[in-house]
């Protein structure tokens, strides 16, 4: 992209960004361009795919859980085309790194709402915890410990239905 094109992009993203100033947006755009140039993906020049995105999150944030990495990719990839564009990159990082408490709660909710129905069921909570927690006690069946944790969490929450949590509006 030409310098003028980058400047226009940075200006546009700065106006739409609630979380970054102009120099930060410029740095994020430059980082994006560097990452895209290094990535040899189907989207070269436009963005990067799930594999590249997962590698970035792993190296930058130490994220290793495959399910969480895939969910975060899906949230960043707002148009569901399998490619993270520079706009999706800046907006996604804005919430992830600098979002308000409400934005981060909504973001986390989206990560746990595996089927996108606006609810987190016992099964979804179980699957996410099962993939995220390391249970070291050999005395207890790992799935049983996770089921107990889900039940404790649900009992501590005020819910319309005991078996699911409604989305934040």
Task: Give the SSE layout.
Layout lengths: L2 H14 L5 H17 L11 H12 L4 H11 L9 H13 L2 H12 L6 E3 H11 L9 H15 L7 E3 L3
Antiparallel strand pairs: 1-2
Helix pairs in contact: 1-2, 3-4, 4-6, 7-8
- Give the terminus-to-terminus CA distance: 38 Å
Spatial order of strands in the largest sheet: 1-2
Largest sheet: 2 strands, antiparallel
Number of strands: 2
Oligomer: single chain
Tell me the fraction of residues in β-strands, as a range: under 5%
Instruction: Count up the helices.
Output: 8
How confident overall, as mean pLDDT? 82
Structural class: mainly alpha
Low-pLDDT regions: 159-163
The rounded Rg comes to 19 Å
- What's the helix-strand series? HHHHHHEHHE
What's the shape?
elongated
Query: Percent of residues in helical segments?
Result: 55-70%
Overall description:
The longest helix has 17 residues, at 22-38. This protein has 8 helices and 2 strands, in the order ααααααβααβ. Residues 159-163 have low confidence and may be disordered. By secondary structure, the chain is mainly α. Strands 1-2 form a two-stranded antiparallel ribbon. The chain starts with a helix and ends with a strand. The protein is elongated, with a radius of gyration of 19 Å. It has helices at residues 3-16, 22-38, 50-61, 66-76, 86-98, 101-112, 122-132, 142-156; strands at residues 119-121, 164-166.
